[in-house]
Each structure stands twice: as C-alpha cells, then as structure tokens.
Amino acid sequence: MDFSILLQDIPTLLVVIIGVPAVLVAYIVGGEYLIRRLPDENRPQVRPWLWVGPALVIVGGILLLPAIATVIQSVQDNHGNFVGLQNYATQLADFPSGGSWIAIRNNVLIWLIFYTLFVLAFGLALAVLFDRVGYETLVKTLIFMPMAISSVALGVIWKFMYWYQPAGASQTGTLNAFVTFFHHEPVAWLQDQWPNGIGILDNLAVVTAATWGIVGFSMVILSAALKGIPGELLEAARVDGAGELTIFRRVIFPLMMPTIVVVGTTLVIFALKIFGEVYVMTNGNYNTDVLALRMFNLLYLSHNNAAASAVAIILLIAVIPVLIFNLRQFRAVEARR
Amino acid sequence: MASVTYEHVTKRFAGGTLAVNDFNLEVKDTEFMVLVGPSGCGKSTALRMLAGLEEVTEGEIRIGDKIVNEMPPRDRDIAMVFQSYALYPHMTVFDNLAFGLKMRGTPKTDIERRVNTAANILELGPLLRRKPRQLSGGQRQRVALGRAIVREPQAFLLDEPLSNLDAKLRVQTRIELQKQHRALHATFIYVTHDQVEAMTMGDRIAVMKDGVLQQVAPPREIYDQPANMYVAGFIGSPTMNFIPVTVQGKTAKASGFDIELPTAAGVEKGVLGIRPEALTEHPTDGHPGMDLKVEVSEVLGADQFLYGVVGADTITARVDPNLKVSPGDRLRLGVDMRRLHLFDGPTGRAIL
C-alpha cells in the first residue's frame, strides 16, 4: 500500500496529533487560570461550564445544529425558498398509499408491533426454556452470534433463504426448497404482497430476518433478569401450591416486567430506525418501504433534500414519545431503589 | 396435623455427594423438632426433601401415613418458612398471605377471613396494603410466618428463619415462635445451626453431622447425656473440656491429674469430658481436684470463664465472677463427679 500520501501531509498530521490535545490542555489550563481570578462566590457557578463545555460543543455541533438545519430545510424548497409545511403536505398526501404513508404504515404498524413482539416473545421463550439445561451456554452463544453480523450481511444471507424460482425450476432458496419438497407451489417471499396487495407477507419476511439478527440481544438481557430472581422465591411458590405455569405467570413474569419494558422500548426505537435489512432485501419495493430508507432514497437518488428533511422530521417526531416514555420509566425504576 | 417419618432416607446429589445418609427420624404430631448441625451437615437437605424441593434418592418419607416421596410439593399440605423469607416482592402483604390459599382454590370470603385472622395473630393488620420492601426485617419475618399459618398445614417447616434478624429481635422472635407453636398446636420442624435456638425451642433435638444423625433426644438429655463426643462438643458454650486419658480399672490418668471413675470403663484409651460449669473453685468430696495455670480470664457479669492448662491439656472452667484471677495465677479446681463423661478414644462413643 502507498503511505506516501501520509508523509506528504506531515503538517496536518502534526496538527492532529499535537495540536488538538494542546488546544484542549490550553483551554482547561487557561480556563482554570481565569476562574481562579474570579471572586470566590462566582467560581462554583462558572467552573462546571468550563468542564462540560467541550462535550456541549461536540453534541451541539454534530447533533443539535444538524437537527435544526434539517427542520429549517424541511420548510424550504430545494432552492432555499420558504414554503411552510408544503413538504410535509406532500409526504402526507393521498392517504393511504401516496407520499410516505406506506413507509409510515410499515414502520408503525408492521415493524413497531411485529418486530418488537417477535423479538420479545422469542427472546423470553429462549431465555426461559434454556435456563435450566446443561448445554445452556452453548445454545445461548449460538443464538447470540447473529448479533455480530452486520445488517447488510444479514440481508444477503436471508435473501438467499427466501430466493424464488418459478414453479418447476429447481429451488435454490432454502425456504422454497422446503416448500416444494412438500409439493406446494414456491412462494416469492420478498415480492408476494399477500393479502390482496396489502403486503403483509413480504414485510413479515423482512421482519423475521431482522428478528433473527437481534433476538440474542433480548434473550441475553431477559435471561439476566430471570437469573436475578432468587430460587427460594420459586420454591416458596411451589410449596404454596403453584404449578410451573402459574409460577411463570404470577411470579416470574411480573418480576421481569421492568426489564421487559426496557428491552421493549429499546426495540421500538430500533424498529423505527430500521434501514439496512430492508435496503438489502427489497430496497423498499413491493410495499416494504420504511421511513429511514425513504429518506435515504429521496436524498441520494432523487436529490430532493427538502422532501428527505421532512421525512427525517416525521421519523424524529415518531421516536420522541418513545424516548419520553423510556426516560420516565428509567426515572421510575431509579426512584424505586 | 400429622406426624412425619423419615425411614432410611438417603440423598445423593448428581456430583456423588452424599448429603443425607440413612436418616431415620420420627417427628410426633404437634411436636417441635429441631434439626441442628454445622453448615453442610444435611439438615436443610433433609427438610427440603420433606418439602418436596429435593428428590429422595433412597428410603421413604411419610406425612401422617401417606408416603410422599413422589408427591409434588403442592399436594403435601406443608408450609415452609425460608431463611430469606422469600416474600413475593411485587405483591402486597395481603396477597403474599393469600397466594397459597388462592392456589388451592379457597373461596374469596374464606381467604379474607383467614388472612385477617393470621394478620391479627401476628399484628400485621396495619401492614396488609404494604409491599415487602416497605417492611422491616422483623415484619418480613412475621409475614413469612403468616404465609405459613394461613395455610393451616399438616406441618410447618422452618429453615433457619431467624438467622437474618439482629440479636435482640432474634431472641424476641424465638419466644414468639414458641408461643405460636403452642397456640397453633401444630407439628414444627425447625432447621438451625444455632445450638441456643435448638436448646430453647425444641421439644426434641436431632443433631446431625456429615449427613448422619448423631442423636435425637429432648434438650436436657442431649446436654446431660450426649451420645458421643461430637454431640457433647456441639451443644454447650463454652464447649465441653475433652481430656485424653489412659484407663486402668477405675482410674483415669490424664497428663495433669488422676480421677476415679464411678465404674470400670472397659477401655484403655479414652477421652474424659467435663463441662466448664462442672469445674469450679469449690473443692469436691472424694477428689483432690486439679491445678489450673490460668492464661485468660473472661468476666461476663454473671459468670467468669478461665482458660488455661492442667498438665498438658487445655481446660476451660467456670468460676465465681467475683474471684480475682490474673493470667499466670494458679488455681485449685474441684470437679463435680456426678457430671463426668467418658468417651471411647477411637470411636468417640459415650461410655459413661
């Protein structure tokens, strides 16, 4: 490999390696020097801001400013003229199939509900079922492994799983090889908009693939919560006359509830942000579009910055209630300690 | 109410550990039986087998005249109080008490009546709407007991229920438990490692060691006639003095003194057992006594314990607390000849 480019730009390299830390040290030393010259009673008010300052600048610079810029762009056209809520109106026009409505429906109805539900249900089932077996560690490691696969690789793998050849041709997709083995017609999993073109089947096919990738996460956290329940509590319930199912319903499940809520809300945010799996497997075709992908396509394919900004803000608005709920839940758990 | 019988019960864990070995015990109806021993002696395992939380490897456990080996816990009609209390943290005190009754399909009005009765007995009335985390340790302990009481079971199993309480509360609760036992007129099986709890609460005490039952007897008898050196050493504080002796006819020779036994022992090597309170500053008839070289003196108000050596043997004696003794002093001790024990050297079995 050619590293000469690095040598050509030695001044830049020096600035990065020496300059950045030097500026930071100078900022702190200089700031402290100035603070020490302040009257005693003002120092405690000023000093925190000196230390929090760099973090505030970075968060503001890479999070807050772009967000504000996006809001501004979403009320302008692509030439910078103010157009009010015109961009939003376009995205929300022609309910139920125009604008962003398909993407909103897929995010809010299919992904938010089914993805969250599948991941929670399977995660809980796996955590409970493998809790008391000897080969628990092995199974859990295997189930956790897909977490290490990127969403793009995961999409490619599952595309092969769902691969479709017309009836009569030999099926290279694992799932259709299975289906035709039992003398059924092959199914175009990623294109079939069952029922009646509404497109639940192909969306669920993508949801299933994404579930496979993330279920280890919920399993591991729920399993930790399960192991946190003292064994004597379950024994007490057994002596009290409860069967294993009742113990799960009346003792284990309620005690795991705070953890389930935390995992659930995290998954809701994941569901709203979903992008990679859809991009690779269907690219949003056949009614499988989602908001993040729509924003990406509007920005990089259509070069419609204004419309993309409006979609981004719609997505942000959808996430905010979940974030607020999550923060409240977190505070409630803290208060109980 | 019912009796509980263990017949040749053995528990072997998956790793091959023998937790309980050929355990035989009959707990009479309404008896307060205490299983006592050091940790790991199998007492908790014995209790958990009775509760149905551990399987029986060999032998038979009966409640009343029903064999319960294969019976799931819910059909055994027993109630258990756990060391950690094991209260359901997400339920109120009322629901904690009512859970066992609900599981058995008791009608709602009955549940309410029985929970309120138990709450009155244990003075839990004002706490019924609280959650366990809002209760003190002593209150939690009472809820755990209440959860057993409302069930009106055949037998109460208690697994070290007092060990999470502070010293003062433990004494109060110990007395409270004895009152409850009398009031409920029920069979209690109580596991503890604390010899004081065993001595004060049990109608009878079963002493266990390494999975083997050593002796079952009323507290007084365990104390006065221990079956072997282990029981003699485990019960009593400070522990009994053990002095190796060689026996010739009726004479036992220790390193620092001789003693005349009431009868011939029939062994050559033995271990003499004398409790500290049988070694005092008062001379005894028929025995010249022994010379104690005092090393440590502990004055506890009502008692004074002297630790020292006689010949080559370490000895503890209980003397008058007003006696002025300093380390290095020599003191003539008398032996209470009626309270002499002799154990067989190799086996530790009591001979006298």
Describe it for me?
The complex is a heterodimer of chains A (337) and B (352). Chain A is globular, with a radius of gyration of 26 Å. With 337 residues, chain A is mainly α. The mean pLDDT of chain A is 90. Helices cover 72% and strands 0% of the residues of chain A. Chain A folds into two domains: 4-74; 89-336, MetI-like fold. Chain B is an alpha+beta fold and 352 residues long. Chain B folds into two domains: 4-228, 3-Layer(aba) Sandwich (Rossmann fold); 238-344, OB fold (Dihydrolipoamide Acetyltransferase, E2P) (Beta Barrel). Chain B has eight helices and 20 strands. Chain B has a six-stranded mixed β-sheet with strand order 6-7-8-3-9-10, with helices on both faces. Chain B has a five-stranded antiparallel β-sheet with strand order 13-12-11-14-20. Chain B is elongated and about 75 Å long. The two termini of chain B are 39 Å apart. The A-B interface holds A 230, 232-233, 235-243, 246, 250-251, 254-255 and B 51-53, 72-74, 78-80, 82-84, 86-90, 99-100, 103-104, 147, 151.
Average of pLDDT of chain A: 90
> What general form of chain B does the structure show?
elongated
Estimated helix fraction of chain A? over 70%
The percent range for helix content of chain B is: 10-25%
Biggest interface reads: A-B, 17 and 23 residues
Strand content of chain B: 25-35%
The CATH class of the largest domain in chain B, by name, is Alpha Beta
